[in-house]
Amino acid sequence: MRRKLAFGAAVLVVLAAAAAGIAIAAGGDDEEPLTGATLAKAGAAALRSTGGGTVTEAEVGDDGAAYEVEVRLPSGRQVEVRLDRSFRVLGQEADDDGAGDEEDGSGDD
Predict the structure, then answer these.
(1) Structural fold of domain 36-94
(2) What residue ranges do the domains of the chain occupy?
């Protein structure tokens, strides 16, 4: 009986650890990356807004934006462009995830 109980407890520990690993591998946060045509449209709208650069990340938005696109400018600065569902720019701001970022001064917040 003890052997069965110990085995059952070990199985539960393994299952709990596996479930935690899956949650961590899934990102641990709610950021959902954009793909396909949505990624292409959001990236193009963001690059028009910034006047060029490279899209480094695009995801489903929050705080009232449908999409958020991070763009690395030719200067090396990173900005986040917020878009609505029609891919219209709601605003952009310096991406504060990196060191040395400054506000872009566009006033489009």
Answers:
(1) SHC Adaptor Protein (3.30.505)
(2) 1-30, 36-94
Cβ atoms of 81 and 92 closer than 8 Å: yes
Summarised one tens digit per residue, pLDDT across range 12-43 is: 444 444 343 333 333 345 689 999 999 999 99
pTM score over 0.85: no
- What is the arrangement of strands in the sheet containing 54-60, beginning at the earlier edge strand? 54-60, 67-72, 78-83, 89-94
User: Can you spell out the DSSP letters for 5-71?
Assistant: HHHHHHHHHHHHHHHHHHHHHTTSS---B--HHHHHHHHHHHHHHHTS-EEEEEEE--TT-SEEEEE
Distance, in Å, from the CA atom of 10 to the CA atom of 56, rounded to the nearest integer, reads 43
Beta carbons within 10 angstroms of residue 23's beta carbon: 10
Tens of pLDDT along 66-89? 999 999 999 999 999 999 999 999
